[in-house]
Here is the input.
Amino acid sequence: MPDVLAPGAREVVDRVERLAYSPAEAAATLGISRARLYQLLDDGTIPSVKLGRRRLIRRVALVGLLERLECHRKVA
Here is the structure.
């Protein structure tokens, strides 16, 4: 499939902060397995949204998870 972006636009797209990730991308971003990510999605620890058939995990959900874990660790 040809690249439909204008010359130079790819660099801009690469610098834009992503709003959402696929489960595989979210797992890689967190450094966990996809299986563990799906466990966290299934038990509601990480919320997700559906866009058509795609499941997306918002960046703020990943940051929120890490913040909750950090706060939990400080309390414990």
Observations:
- The two ends are 51 Å apart (CA to CA).
- Residues 59-75 form the longest helix (17 residues).
- The domain at 19-75 is CATH 1.10.1660 (Multidrug-efflux Transporter Regulator; Chain: A; Domain 2).
